[in-house]
From TrEMBL:
Organism this protein belongs to: Christensenella hongkongensis
Sorted UniProt keywords: Oxidoreductase, Thiamine pyrophosphate
One Pfam match: Transket_pyr
Signal peptide: none
E.C. code: 1.2.4.-
Molecular functions per Gene Ontology: oxidoreductase activity
SUPFAM superfamilies from the UniProt entry: Thiamin diphosphate-binding fold (THDP-binding), TK C-terminal domain-like
Descriptive protein name: Acetoin dehydrogenase E1 component beta-subunit
InterPro entries: THDP-binding, Transketo_C/PFOR_II, Transketolase-like_Pyr-bd, Transketolase_C
């Protein structure tokens, strides 16, 4: 019997083994070669390659007119991005840490997110805002937050959080080509993670979640670093005879509700794992959607596994206890059974 066409097509795709950070750099490099309107700006993004070295080497390739070091001013960085996007450029601007977005919230919330709507679509806003997010690298309370829920609350912004090197490349290429502003949040603890990444032009669509592990007993919905945690927890649960289906959202706005609801209709249980604090996190939005649209499918209460409602600790011992880990996720889910 012949193999399905999609499998044959997949076999023709050449793969490279890249880190998450290398995949992001490859996406930027590919799009800058393709489109002269694309440029990169941020603090120390030129010779240093950013705080985490993700864009190192691009300055030598593209020069100071397209790889721009900026002042230490998040307001200026996002303002530069908004203005140049409105004039037809396709800027990628970097905030060293998502925690610093608060300094530039007027530009993000009132300018980038609203300009296309207020001008009736005449003005597009092809702006990508890259920012490092998340804890576990001992960076303390002002450099470790997980703040995606703030941005999902603002109409006009798309919010993307890749969990793998392949998705980091594919989603970033999609983001750069989008005519709307995209918050592209990269988990700093994933930068060194390696994985197979398709070579060349490769995109991942927004609003399409990925079922990375199939199961029949419970659905685990997660994104970014917590997808990796959920996968490890699912392995532990399998040893206890519990079959967990892991859904990686990939993009929060737009959100793939269909995949979540279809999975719940199969497993009849739901756990949502997020690194952000418990109150008003994006897990609450998912729980509300499920309660509104498929409550009758659930055999158990919805379980939210999150960080506690306190700032991220600096102490390694406390930080490890603060962030949900595989053991905690597996133990809390096992209690349901």
């Amino acid at each position: 019997m012949s193999e399905p066409k999609q499998i044959l097509n997949q076999r023709r795709i050449k793969m490279s083994n890249l880190t998450y950070g290398e995949a992001i750099k490859e996406a930027i490099e590919l799009e800058m070669k393709k489109d002269p309107m694309v440029f990169l700006a941020g603090e120390d993004v030129a010779k240093l390659g950013g705080a985490f070295g993700v864009t190192s080497g691009l300055y030598n390739e593209f020069g100071p007119e397209r790889i721009l070091n900026t002042p230490i001013s998040e307001t200026a960085i996002i303002g530069l991005g908004v203005g140049s996007a409105a004039l037809g450029m396709r800027p990628i601007v970097e905030l060293m840490y998502v925690d610093f977005a608060g300094v530039a919230m007027d530009e993000i919330m009132n300018q980038a997110a609203k300009m296309r709507y207020m001008f009736g679509g005449v003005c597009t806003m092809p702006l990508v805002i890259r920012a490092a997010s998340g804890a576990t690298v001992r960076a303390a309370a002002q450099h470790s937050q997980t703040l995606e829920a703030m941005f999902t609350h603002i109409p006009g912004l798309k919010v993307v959080m890749p969990a793998t090197p392949a998705d980091a490349k594919g989603l970033l290429l999609t983001a750069i080509r989008d005519d709307n502003p995209v918050m592209f949040l990269e988990h700093k603890a994933l930068y060194s993670m390696k994985g197979e990444v398709p070579e060349g032009d490769y995109t991942v669509p927004f609003g399409k979640a990925n079922i990375i592990r199939e199961g029949s007993d419970i659905t685990i919905v997660s994104w970014s670093m917590m997808t990796q945690v959920a996968m490890q927890a699912a392995g532990q649960l399998a040893e206890k005879g519990i079959s967990a289906e892991v859904v990686d959202l990939r993009s929060l706005v737009p959100l793939d509700k269909e995949t979540i609801l279809n999975s719940i209709s199969k497993t009849h249980r739901l756990a949502i794992v997020q690194e952000a604090v418990h109150t008003s996190g994006f897990a609450s939005e998912i729980a509300a959607i499920v309660a509104e649209e498929c409550l009758d499918e659930l055999d158990e209460n919805i379980l939210r596994i999150t960080a506690p409602d306190c700032p991220v600790p600096y102490s390694p011992v406390l930080e490890d206890a603060y962030v949900p880990g595989p053991d905690k996720v597996a133990d809390m889910i096992a209690e349901i059974f």
